[in-house]
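The passage that follows is intended for readers who have already worked through the single-chain material. We present the inputs for a multi-component assembly, then the predicted structure in tokenized form, and finally a short commentary. You are encouraged to pause after the input and sketch how you expect the pieces to fit together before reading on.
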Amino acid sequence: MPITANDTNRKSWLEVLENSDFPIQNIPFGVFLTKENVVTVGTRIGNFAIDLGALQQLNYFEGIELTDDMFMQDTLNDFISDGQKTWRLVRNRIADLFDEKNPKLRDNIKDRDIIIFKMEDVEMQLPVLIGDYTDFYSSKEHATNVGKMFRDPENALLPNWLHIPVGYHGRSSTIVPSGIPVHRPMGQTLPAGETTPVFGPSRSVDFELETAFITTDVNIMGENIPVTEAEDYIFGMVLLNDWSARDIQKWEYVPLGPFLAKNFATSISPWIVTMDALEPFRTKGPKQEPTPLPYLQQKGKHSFDINLEVAIQPEHAEPTVVSHSNFKYLYWSMCQQLAHHTSNGCRVNSGDMMGSGTISGPTEDSFGSMLELTWGGKNPIKLKDGSERKFINDNDTVIIKGFCQNGHVRIGFGEVSSKLLPPFVRK
Amino acid sequence: MPITANDTNRKSWLEVLENSDFPIQNIPFGVFLTKENVVTVGTRIGNFAIDLGALQQLNYFEGIELTDDMFMQDTLNDFISDGQKTWRLVRNRIADLFDEKNPKLRDNIKDRDIIIFKMEDVEMQLPVLIGDYTDFYSSKEHATNVGKMFRDPENALLPNWLHIPVGYHGRSSTIVPSGIPVHRPMGQTLPAGETTPVFGPSRSVDFELETAFITTDVNIMGENIPVTEAEDYIFGMVLLNDWSARDIQKWEYVPLGPFLAKNFATSISPWIVTMDALEPFRTKGPKQEPTPLPYLQQKGKHSFDINLEVAIQPEHAEPTVVSHSNFKYLYWSMCQQLAHHTSNGCRVNSGDMMGSGTISGPTEDSFGSMLELTWGGKNPIKLKDGSERKFINDNDTVIIKGFCQNGHVRIGFGEVSSKLLPPFVRK
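Having made your guess, compare it with the prediction:
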């Protein structure tokens, strides 16, 4: 089915500012709360949130097979479960309805009033109920940097890394959308040179620059999905900040991996940008040497050229961009991650989320965490207000942005922006 | 509130065979499917399943504040969310209704017909929708055995182990109830002496003898629960088989922990035995030396005397018990696990499940996995039919049972029994 929604010549009758992440060619999916306390599935064009539940009720999806309450829900799980054909039909229809040449909704002021909200008048929610959240570790540069610092500079990459898209399970219950503040975690750490641990606020709270993809129902238990088919099961992507407490992590992570160092919070951008919208930005990933085992081999372009940046904004000051990276640096593709994940028959459901792992690039200004940017705190970063950071301070806001751009169109993710509050005080 | 349901003098008008795991003093909670395709929350006395949805509809819970559809659901999450007071009221009422001295339901044949099913006529389901599943690693004997085999015999326990109830996140989507068969997973492994991995069926599929506890809503994000209050948030316990593919685990687990070696399947017993029912079997856990940090310190008895055993049953042969262990061997208590889990503010919700980790005892016949029982496959186990096992063979059934017994009463878990099928063949 042609993705007519991607037509770069199309313009919307809704105002879209230059350099907006959300031209009519994007049409991401999310969930928002209105001032009338209504939760609905929606999309966004420019700075307008569009209520898909209302669009459906007013019959604008006529001819597309949808259950009656497909969009009058507080998650996208059912819609995502309907599969790629439905996603395309709906996205194409939305593009058609908001095309400047189409008078149907454009000239119906009454319906427009019901359907369209200013972004400032809605509150974005988590777009999906995340049954299981997996986080990969797929940047060779990041794994190498961490290996150099934490283990052996001469053998930074562990023996399995070039053969396996290494991953682990994260915590679903603490995934929050952009805008929700996060508390500095308390935890157990081992002070340098000591043999007895202490308990207190983490002294090295870090961000991790990541993206994540959201799946549809992939398989039944036991079944694997070949790498060549994996793409059909990926609905779209978001930006992800994998908050990390480095001192807690260092003490707890052997032998079962990070736990409390990570599960206090994970922040994501609220609009899921579809793989269809990202299609024009397909590119090759890094050369894989040695050649992966057959179940992970794929031909063609399976990465995406997505510019990523991280800024730190101290309270009452302007943000300073501290990292510029790109999704295309990732060594393992999303298809390889998903094929590996199901290679043992692990069931993957609609709304499951899989993080990329920290996306570090080859240069020092493209590292995706403070751990790497300051090299374990040795080289503090100077912010615009003159202050320095080894890690994230209380009341700093971390802002991750991402967008694709070519000569014809810009498709963006908006941002995931979250403030680090001091430790929680129990009442 | 007194737990009158635990009165050991009480007898039921329903037949309960001697040595049944489910006398009227147990009253566990589960979810079952009837032959009429109705799913309901239920309990069990002897070999009878009791439909709590029907009991509620017929007004037998009069006087207890419950939402109208509390038990006409396919999970226990809402009931568990209602908290300890409701659990006790409902359990006490059930005990009262099925007491041989109470004619109310006993003498109402019409209602009995609607409410009571033979166990053989119902199909047990997962009792809860598990939002997040955590698995701990809290047996000192198990951690020591694994450390000796996989790492350094002289320093088997890692430095953090005596200070932290080490744990990690597992996969919710592949948790299945007793009776559901499991496929031998495919996966990547590194043959001994090689440097290039291969992909194929795991050659060392193992069980892990565990229990798990199920929580109610514990906290809001950011908040910690003190170890002294943790018990109030634990609803009950089940038996758990943490299926493990040792060859996959060995190759993949550094540095982020087990992933595909574990997430192909986790089997649990279907009846949640409440902490109230286990109350008479409270006992002290092992002495903790060094003293844990203050946030993990607790006084009194916080372990439970639960006999555990594992049997392997080859196809067309009788089962052989291969391990006898006990929950009381666990070093870290469930309260310590939960307090640690929330010490960084990690949110824990109703229906979340936390595994104990393999429960190995001090003697060789009390080890909780084939890895330990056969010491990495070096000392095969002989089964009753004359065959030998290093790990689990295709078409073997692994059966874990658990029960508490004192002079007055036996409170059991039933079993978690699951057959290992050959690798899945994709159609």
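Commentary: Residues 84-97 of chain A form the longest helix (14 residues). The CA atoms of residues 114 and 382 of chain A lie 48 Å apart. How closely did your sketch match?
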